[in-house]
Amino acid sequence: MRTTYYHSGFEASERFLEMSWNSQSKSLSLFIAIAEALEDVVCKLFFVIHRVSNSKRQGLNSQEFDGFYDRNSDMYTLNTLTSLKKLDLSWNSFSDGLPEVVCQLNSLESLDLYGCRLAGLPTTVGKLKMLKHLYLNSNKFHELPSQIGELKELVTLNLSNNYTLMALSAQILSLKNLQDLQLERCESLQSPPKNVTRQGLPAIQQYYKDLAGGKEKLLSATVAIIGKSKSGKTSLIKTMQKGSRILTGSFGSAEQISTKVFNFEKVPFGERSLYFIDFGGQEIYHHAYRLTLRENCIPVVVVNMHMFVEESDRVGPKDSVRALFFDWIAHLYLAHPNMLLPALVLTHKDLFDEEKFVAEKMKLLLCCNKVLDEIRDEENRFEGANFCHIKSFEAETDMFTPEWIFEVGHDYSDEFTRLRDQLLEQSQRYVTEVPRLWKQVEDVMSTLKSDFTTFESLLDKVHESHGVVKEQLTVIIKYLHLSGKLLWYNDIEGLDQHVFHKISAVTTLLNVLYDHECDSKWDKRRENFKRCKVQTMYLLEEEFEESVRQFKATGVISLVLLAYLIKNETAFIEDDEQRVALAILSKFRILFGSLSTVDAKFIIPHFAQGFQSTLPTTKLDLQFQTDILCKGLALPQYVFHELTVRLLELYSDLYNTPIVHHNGVSIAVDKSRVHFTHDAKAGKITATVAFNVEEFHEAWNNLRETVNVAIKHLRGTWRATPLVCIFYCAHCRLTSQQHPEKVINPSWSLLSRAQPDPKGIKMRDVVCAGESVSSVFKFPMSGIIQPCTTSSCPSAFNGSPDLIGSSFVDVCKAIADDSPTYTNKTEIKDLFHNTDAAST
Q1: Exposure string over 205-220, b if 16+ CB within 10 A, otherwise e
Q2: What is the DSSP string of 628-682?
Q3: Which pLDDT score is estimated for 55?
Q4: What rounded mean pLDDT belongs to the chain?
Q5: What are the residues facing 275 on neighbouring strands?
Q6: Which of 313, 474, 569, 727 has the fewest CB atoms within 10 Å of its CB?
């Protein structure tokens, strides 16, 4: 048993270590007191240790030592503890190296060196033959110490938070018993590549096995060109391809190009080449960004300066900067917060005289810095919250440095050469060393004629040509997927057996539904329509027209129409391939279905019509309400549509027909109704549950589940979005207050578990005394909940407002119990609308 006391600053801290010594059935407890100040100026701590005489220490067995070590003290020496099993030396400063005495503890099974400022280990560490658990996290290692390969019994190796760690080694293969290797936040790690380490220990081991057969250096970077339509993105890429100015936009060129979804373009720069991704500039194509955007992307934002001036006159320069710049980089940085800052290309310079251009450029850069400062301030207000800060935004510097700003006009200039050189230099950060075999597998896939293949057929091909087995191919394909070179969703049933080695197969599929020229596209489809058999059914012209009309009016598309479009406009021609296509659209939560068992249909929230608002409080329905606020960079619109689909999936077994709007969904769940609305521009999500008093418990659970699912979905991909979860006081809403208090009660205490459940209401699962918020909700609540200190709400409980007012609970209990205290339920319900009565 041990008790530890901590005091910060220069105060003393005592640690007590109780050791049992068993010799001839006798127990001995000896005490040693050491009060030497440690070298660390930030936190000087002292410790007290129970002492045994040197003559008795040899008999200690199965002991733990947890304390600070003083190499200069002759009062205590570790080398006498020959039977010590567990040693915790965390937070000691061993910048000069780990004392050799530690390596003499031959019985040691667990060694914790967390935060000890170590850059290496003694050569004698291999003597710890019994060591099973080694914690080296938060140190200063540059590479994996070779001596670790001698620790054959090692089961756990924690190297996380070693920000300077650049490489592991093949010594990992010597650790046959290793089961847990932790490498979180090793930001400098290059070997193995991050897209290998993210797959876990088996992939790392496979990497080093394959590396023994030869290795190659590969450039894994891609250049992501983003920006609004008509900004000059495609012209920029084609100019760099040709080495002369190519214009594809509105400057009198016969070549009018408008990118749909995105295009891959290979741009040769002498002996080297870079792959450019030309993203479509309309919001409707935002869904496709996540297909290829990875942290190895070099972002380039293209801004049409003429468009900036027009937008500034219309909405103001700061909002113009948000619309033309920040709303586009949000796709990159919210999902990949470690991505580098983007290059800025300012186009259409020839439309201004020099003085005017410089003035507008300075205005744009100034507004960029102002918006960036606002984002930083907002993130700082949520310090400690569970989200990832955008690494490039953390430094208190300007958004752009002069060397990363490029100004181009109609003619070819040195700016294009300068941009090329900067991109080539930046791309060297993403040169990775991979086994030669992996490159050979990638080359085999490049020879395939089809757009996608099955995993098994690819395995047969590479096994025959290169002897690759299933475990190897799994790691290789996942590495290429994480690098943005292909798509493989091995964790999704229905997609796990298909490898999309040409991403264009999926972009073409998305273009079936998403097209900025939607109306003209439907007109062409009508003109070219031919009677066709799809999914064992024939689609006639009359049915085609009716299905199109319904889709445009409601966002609901029939299976037969969707299958017809997929068959005629994509590479998914056969029936089984069409099912794969539907699985892809479902995976991206673009659609949900089938909504009917008789006539299979799918709802696509992006195309749903109409808008809904939360229902007002009425005497018939009680309500719970929660707001989720998405701070920082603005989330893309499609994220909120994905949440609509996620809610439909959550309640798919409990409802009949939901009402889907463009900004949310209303779902009847049992006897309550869940309303889910979103406002993408405001970054606000509102979940409301309306119910009768008898469904109190079910309604509360529905609200909890709705909020849990929304938070989990947002955190799963958009890691750099600060989230604030605000619950409206149920009592205030039910007393018809126009502006109900927004409250969170951290103690979460309303009713004791000892209280019996009232009739018809299972209060026990709703709240309980002393229960933490985190235990009630499935997601970690640290930093999410915005506490409220107001005490004006009539539902105040022990001096602070409760989430669900005790007076409200009392009335619910009375109604459910049909309490004789009240003459009728109408009278009881009236109490909800009488503040004075309810508060008493």
Answers
A1: bbbbbbbeeebeebbb
A2: EEE-SSPPPHHHHHHHHHHHHHHTTTT-S--EEETTEEEEEETTEEEEEEEETTT
A3: 32
A4: 76
A5: 222, 266
A6: 313
Mean pLDDT of 400-413: 90
Peptide linkage before 192 cis (omega within 30 of 0):
yes
The pTM of the full predicted model, rounded to 2 decimals, is 0.78
What pairing do the DSSP bridges indicate for beta strands 405-407 and 64-66?
Answer: unpaired
Going by DSSP bridges, is the β-strand pair 110-112/86-88 parallel, antiparallel, or unpaired?
Answer: parallel
- Whether 694 has a pLDDT exceeding 50, the answer reads yes
* HSE-up (13 A, CA, CB side) for residue 787: 11
Q: Which amino acid is at 501?
A: H
The first and second tokens of residue 551, run together, are 């889709």
Give, rounded to a whole angstrom, the gap between the first and last alpha carbons of the chain. Answer: 50
CB 316 within 8 Å of CB 220: no
User: What's the rounded Cα separation, in Å, for the pair 113 and 141?
Assistant: 12
For 124-163, letters b (16+ CB in 10 Å) and e give ebbbbeebbbbbbbbbebebbbebbbbbeebbbbbbbbbe
- Where is 700: in which H helix or E strand? helix 696-717
Q: Is 315 helix (H, G, I), strand (E, B) or coil?
A: helix
Pick from 245, 381, 226, 251: nearest CA to 306: 251
Residues 6+ positions from 827 with CB-CB distance below 8 Å: none
C-alpha span between 90 and 92 (Å, rounded): 6
Please give the Cα distance from 723 to 725 (Å, whole number). Answer: 7
- Residue carrying the six token digits 């690759």: 468
Residue with tokens 């690494």: 391
Span 263-312, pLDDT tens digits: 778 888 777 788 888 888 788 888 877 777 788 889 999 999 999 999 99
Helix (H) / strand (E) containing 838: helix 835-839
Distance (Å, whole) CA 324 – CA 274: 25
Question: Tokens 């935004």 identify what position?
Answer: 393
Question: Is-contact 688 706, C-beta < 8 A?
Answer: no
Rg (CA), the chain: 32
What is the rounded CA–CA span in Å between residue 184 and residue 688?
38
- 3-class state of residue 127 by DSSP: helix
- d(C-alpha 129, C-alpha 151), whole Å: 6
Angle between helices 696-717 and 637-650 (to 10 degrees): 140
